[in-house]
Amino acid sequence: MDYLEQLFTVFSSGLPRRLALLGFTLTFSFLNYMGLVIVGYTAVVLGVISLFPFILMSFIAIPKIHPHRWVSLGQKGVKKDWNLYFNTLFWNLNFWDSVSTLAGEVEKPQKTFPLALFCAVIFTCVAYLIPLFAITGAVSVDQSEWESGFFANAAAIVSGKWLKVWIEIGAVLSSIGLFEAQLSSCVYQLVGMADLGLLPRFFAIRSKWFDTPWVGILLSTAITIGVSYMDFSNIVSSANFLYSLGMLLEFASYLWLRRKQPTLKRPYRVPMRLPGLIIMCLIPSGFLIVIMAIATKIVYLISGLVTVFGIGWYYLMKFCKKKKWFKFSHEVQQYEQE
Predict the structure, then answer these.
(1) Where in the chain are the domains?
(2) Please, are residues 59 and 146 in contact by the beta-carbon 8 Å criterion?
(3) Residues 19, 47, 224, 252: what is their CA dihedral angle, to the nearest 10 degrees?
(4) Is 180 exposed, middle or buried (0-12, 13-18, 19+ CB in 10 A)?
(5) Residues 6+ apart with CB under 8 A from 97
(6) Tens-place pLDDT, residues 202-241
(7) Burial of 131 per CB tally in 10 Å (0-12, 13-18, 19+)
(8) Rounded to whole angstroms, what are the CA distances from 204 to 97, 215, 229?
(9) Residues 6 or more apart whose Cβ sits within 8 Å of residue 208
(10) Tens digit of each residue's pLDDT (9 = 90 or more) over 112-126
């Protein structure tokens, strides 16, 4: 919305902004309802269109680059916000594990995913670094102006208003692609939990028209609408905190399974022994702990409430399963018996 409101100031605040958030969320959620194939191709097209103005801006900025600006430590007297820096960096470079929730919809994920992730990581880092180096080297402005949406202003300084508008449009399209991808992973995570018996079976119900899990899409959309009116920095920090907790649990589960079930059939097996896997997991775990340690009080509060709710929901589902109030899949019980 930060870029969109620069194009249309009417969306900067008040009722128009709220209606825009609601309308966009519902529209793009319906796109997810139409299926992963459409979402995938849409994301690729949006990615190409949104990246092109940034690439063009980087080339235009080359003659104006002063390399000494890259080693600048910032303006004197300006406080460095490390909390915002690490959370923004983490927000832009995390959620790689979310792709695992879509493995059931992909042919031969054990071959496709490693290659796709390898290419995506390199491509993502390059897509961030090239425009960032270009603008920091070519534009000299007050440090306080570097805030959300500044790339559009930088484009205007480098080339003119036409590129600024193009950057704003590209940023909006990029956000749409990000929303679609994130919603898909959340939805199919709910489906996986239903298949494992952690949620009632109706969470895995699919549409007769598009074969998509419409219950999960509806629930995820409702949650998205609910949090969309929060302050963006709190959303980012809270999401990072909760993601860090989840990743630590994933690492612990991963190592525990490798130790307890070394012969368990897996779609993909990391070709390393347990000591190497521990070292591999310790490095990102350290960064996750840093992200959690620098969180603000409001983030601790939000994350704590969500965590308590999640734990309470788990025991509520166990109670519902015991009372047979809902139908559950029995895959978890079968696995435990094996």
Answers:
(1) 1-229, 232-338
(2) no
(3) -170
(4) buried
(5) 247, 250
(6) 888 888 888 888 888 888 888 888 777 777 777 778 888 8
(7) buried
(8) 21, 7, 28
(9) none
(10) 888 888 888 888 888
